[in-house]
Structures are given as C-alpha cells and as structure tokens.
Amino acid sequence: MSVVPHPVGLPAEPGAVPAGAAEPVSAAGPISAIKTRVVSAPYRRPFQISSGISTELISLVVEVHTADGALGIGETSPMTAYTGETLAGVQAAIEEHLAPALIGRDPLDRAGAHLVMDSVLRGQHVAKSGLDIALYDLAGRLSGWPVHALLGGSIRDRVQTTWVVGLGTLDEMAAEAAEYADRGFRHLKVKGGHEPAKDLELVRAVRAAIPADAELCLDANEGYDASTALPYLAKMADAGLTLLEQPLPRWDLAGLVRLRERLDVRLMVDESMHSLQDALEIARRGAADVLNIKILKVGGLHRALQIANVAEAAGLAVKVGSMPELGVATLAAVHLAAAVPGATVAADLVGPLMVHEDPLAPTVFADCDGWIDVPKRPGLGHDV
Fold it and tell me: Which residues pair with residue 320 across a beta bridge?
C-alpha cells in the first residue's frame, strides 16, 4: 500500500520517518479506504435565516476504513447559504484531494491528518470536518473510549441545548418559542437580522411568551448596520435579551467592539470566526464575550478544541454551535460541549430535532427536554 510522505513545505517532526520508509501505524493498520454517501431528511418546517431558506437538511456521511477492518463514521453538512460551500464541492474535495492524501496513514494520527489535509487543500473546512469526525470516532472505537475522553474528559454528564426558532411571522416565532419552553428548554434562540425595529418587537413578544428564567438569544446573522441598529439593540437589552449573536458583517470587528462597549448584553460571534487565527484576533481586539464554535465550520473537533483553548486563555465563554447537521455530527458537538470547561452557554444540538426521521440520529436525542445525555459508549456512540 502506498504511503503518503510528510507534506512538502512542512517541517519534519522529531523522530519523523524519512520519506520512502515504512511509516508506523496503529494496531488496526493504515487507512485503506474512505467512502462518502449522501443522506437527507426534510425539516419539520422550512428553516430560514437572513441569508436563505432550506426545506431539507442534507448531509454527507464519511467512512474511514482501515486495512484490518476497523471503521470510523463522520458527517458533514454544507449549508450553502451560510458557508458558500456546496454538497457536490465538499464531496469532490474529499474524494479527489483529501482522501488520496490520507490513504496509507496511521488513523490515530489526527493532528498529522490535519497537517496533510491543509497541505493539499486550502480552506474547505466543511470537507475536512467530516474526515476529522470519522477519525475521532475510529480512535474511540479502537481504544474503547468515548470521544469526550479523547478530548480531555467529560466535565458534564448532560449538555444543555438551546432551541433555535427560524424566521417566520412574529406570532409563529413567539408561539414556537413558548412551545419549546414548555417542553423544558431554558435557552431559546430566535433568528432575526432583516430590520432591527421588527426584531425589537420580536424580542418583546418572545420574552413575554417564555418563562422569566429562560434565556433569550437573538441571532441577526450579520444583518445589521452598527450606526442604525444601536438604539434598537439597547432597547432589546432592556426588554430582556440576554445574548446577541453576530449582529454585524463578519469583517466588521471594529463595529463589534463598539457595540460591545455600548450594550448591556453579551455579544457572541459566529460568522466572524472560521479559524484558530480568527479566534485569536477576536480575543485580542475584545470583539466578543462568547465564541460560537461550530465543528463543521472550523474544520473538525481537532481545530474546535484548539479554538476552545484560545477562548479559555482569553476568558471568553463558548457555545458549541450547529450548522445544523444530523445525528452523527451533532453527537460530535455533544462530546465537545461535555469536554470544554468554558462551554457554559447552551449548545445548539437541535439538528436531529428539527427534521422528520433523522437517518443518523441515535436514541440519545429522543424526547429531548432541553438536555442531552453524553454517550459513554466507545467512539461517538452512534448506531450508524
């Protein structure tokens, strides 16, 4: 079997095997095959944010096989209106570039896998995340450990999840928030971003419809202009908004800093952060109180944990977010939220709850009351 050499242009690690020599691999043997397949499920109601609308949640299942028959299964889901990546493009990135570079490598060398992937293809975080999640699942199955143990251990046996209310009429959104609050969800997130004046009405309506102890987040998905939105945002804070997500365009860190200085509400970034370097710059400039870490957006669990460490060093809180995705990738988010000390903001673990008959959802998501039990089985803990 061919062995992928150390990536050109990257320094060799101490003790690295010379190019052309046999590379040590795990007891399961080297990676022998990588396969992908498309799965989908219709949303219970169309999911709409300020940048677009989706009627169906489409994901790509990624299988990593080893020479000795071990298997790890991951998932990735490009939400094109949000990431700009298409399903066909993600699948091509894996099959034509990333998979060939990983064949022959030790499946337990997850850090090395990222070095190799980054050397053959710039960006494409959504594609890389599917492989990363599969490698973590494989490592957990081989070791007998759940994925959270590979991330440093679990400090939570249960992870709180928010309920995300997509765009609709004011009455529809308030009613949906109230319904899920009645089911036990104590963190509600509503989508906005078209007009701050209307979003102020939305915040007031939802706040009146949910219990006083429920937290309320508004996600503007980059929809505001700082100069015109500020007066309305101040009134939203007065009306009981507890968390404001990505009110300004992703590039406007200076504007986010100004809003943070003027508002009495925690500010969270999402679209502004796609990499470890983005996280460092946001922390350096004081542009947020909370980092929304979406595993698929940043390239997988390996990169997500690095970003969480930056957040911890900077004293920032973490939310483990969602694109959303189906059950396998959502399970990866459960393990990350369980392992990260700073993940104190309710996670977005709602993909399997938003669709009809998720083909990848394990029983852990059944009858969710706002909390998800952290799986203890080896790997991610799914039944795919």
Answer: 293
